[in-house]
Structure formats: C-alpha cells, structure tokens
Amino acid sequence: MQGFLMKRLRSAEDTDDILQEIYLRIEKFTGEEDIMNSRAFVYRIANNLAIDRMRQRTRHRNHHSDGEDTCADIAAPLPPADQIIYDRSRLKFLQEALGKLSEKQRACFILHRCDKMTYKEVGQKVGLSESMAKKHVIKALAHCRKYMRKIEG
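Request: output the structure for the sequence above.
Response:
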C-alpha cells in the first residue's frame, strides 16, 4: 500500500497522512454492506484519497502562484525587542522636540520632511515665501538635532 501511494503522490509526508486516513476510515466503517474483496476496497479508498490530495495540491499551487505573495514571502524580519524599545524612546523624544517648535516651524518641518513637499509647496501651504519656509525647516531640524543630542547625552 505504501509503495502504491508513494508512486502516486511522490511525497513521504502525504503517503503517511493517507495511510493514517485509510486506517481511520476502515475503523469507522460500519460494515452495513458486504465487502466482496477487502483488498480492492482498501485500494479504492487509497486511490480516492490520493486523488483528493493531488487536487488539493493543485488548488494550493494555483492559489499561490497567481502573482500574489504569501505572508512568509513578504514578511520583514522584526528587529530585536531592545531595538524596538530604543527606537520608540527616540520617537518620543523627537515628538517632544517637535512640540517645542513654533507652529510655523513645526508645520514647515512636517510638510517638508514627512509629506515630501518642496520648499515652494510648503511656503504656499503655510503662507510664506519659499526662502522663509526653507529657513523654518532648517531651524526646526537644527532644534531637533540639538534636543536629541542633549537627551542622548
């Protein structure tokens, strides 16, 4: 039986699974019908389960080969826990530094660095000239760097 399944499935794992399933099905069999040839009966179960397994493999392969990545294929490795804690504390300090800026400096800095706007776009958005928007961003960046250096010691 094992050789028959190995030839069909070409997988030791699948063969073992099917052999176990055959055993369970025979155990559950109530015997309401007379079985003329028990060997043929067992091989019929094995063949049907092998066909089901091959169909299942095909469906799985088709589902995962349609251009979509599986989670395992696209998952990024997580940094160590201590790195996450360190990064979160730095982010907290940066938020504190941004909170100490004037409203215009903070707005210019965020629009330029986070929203990727040009100085001209930032100036238009907050009602300043391009050069004034640039000065606000430079001052905000200098303040944040100084604050972070002071905190990190």
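The chain has a mean pLDDT of 85.
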